[in-house]
């Protein structure tokens, strides 16, 4: 983890697709981990899961998708975090690249600098050991609020609408016979499977001017999961509820 923390989240990548996904690095709520089949009450989806594919839409070519996609996504939220990302170019390819990265467990953060946290990561000390400064978690509050304020079922509808172009962009990354749906599902499965971790978390400074988890099990998590944990207990809890809602809406 870089102390300057210029990396955004794997989850926004994911949410923003479907829009989107995103992720992050650091902790979830206290208490037992929900079972694999359990889903918390969903409050961000106001419609039933979408069972039928969206009707065919006349989509512009991939290189002209920005003007088509921006109004669709801007209607979902007026939050500035989303607006900053929508002001960038080649949105569909950005999402495809983010899914390509996150579905393999990697963080697509470097491609989403428009939504990076405004403040640097900071550490504190407890009992002579390094820990994450709780103030660091609040850097992600705005982004998490943006994502969780969006109706997951509407995100699923947009995803299904732009699917042909998103799939085209995904296949252009070297997956000639691939399907972006599989990348989305792998990403969602990975993020939702992120373990619940109690705070405070002990960290240690590395020789590369960064930080690592002192707990070997946490340090061995996939980069996308570690990125998600970095958002703090309350934020991760909210995101996991939203991601489960999105997963259900995409079925």
SSE string, helices as H and strands as E: HHHHEEHHHEEHHH
The average pLDDT value, as a whole number, equals: 74
Tell me, briefly, the overall form: elongated
Low-confidence spans: 1-51
How many helical stretches?
10
Largest sheet: 4 strands, antiparallel
* Helix fraction by DSSP (H/I, runs of at least 4): 40-55%
How many strands appear in the DSSP assignment? 4
Structure description:
It is a single chain. This protein has 10 helices and 4 strands; from the N terminus they run H-H-H-H-E-E-H-H-H-E-E-H-H-H. By secondary structure, it is mainly alpha-helical. It has one domain (10-122, 134-200, 222-249). The model is unreliable at 1-51 (pLDDT under 50).
Which key features would you list for this structure?
251 residues; mainly alpha; 4-stranded antiparallel sheet; 10 helices; 4 strands; 6% strand; elongated
Quick structural gist:
The protein has helices at residues 10-13, 65-74, 80-86, 91-103, 141-148, 152-171, 180-192, 216-219, 223-229, 233-249, and strands at 123-126, 129-132, 202-205, 211-213. With 251 residues, the chain is mostly helical.
């Amino acid at each position: 983890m870089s102390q300057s923390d210029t990396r955004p989240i794997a989850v926004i990548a994911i949410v923003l697709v479907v829009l989107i996904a995103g992720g992050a690095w650091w902790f979830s709520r206290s208490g037992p981990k929900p079972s694999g089949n359990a889903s918390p009450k969903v409050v961000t989806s106001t419609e039933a899961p979408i069972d039928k594919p969206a009707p065919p839409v006349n989509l512009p070519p991939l290189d002209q998708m920005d003007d088509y996609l921006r109004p669709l996504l801007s209607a979902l939220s007026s939050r500035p975090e989303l607006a900053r990302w929508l002001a960038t170019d080649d949105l569909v390819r950005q999402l495809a690249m983010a899914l390509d990265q996150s579905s393999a467990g990697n963080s697509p953060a470097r491609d989403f600098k428009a939504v990076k946290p405004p403040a640097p990561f900071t550490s504190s000390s407890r009992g002579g050991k390094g820990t994450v400064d709780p103030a660091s978690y609040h850097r992600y509050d705005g982004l998490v609020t943006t994502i969780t304020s969006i109706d997951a079922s509407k995100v699923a509808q947009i995803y299904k609408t732009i699917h042909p172009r998103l799939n085209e962009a995904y296949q252009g990354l070297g997956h000639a016979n691939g399907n972006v749906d599989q990348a989305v599902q792998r990403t969602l499965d990975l993020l939702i499977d992120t373990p619940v971790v109690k705070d405070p978390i002990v960290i240690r400074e590395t020789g590369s001017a960064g930080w690592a988890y002192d707990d070997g099990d946490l340090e061995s998590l996939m980069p996308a999961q570690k990125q998600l944990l970095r958002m703090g207990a309350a934020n991760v809890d909210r995101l996991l509820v939203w991601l489960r809602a999105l997963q259900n809406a995409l079925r």
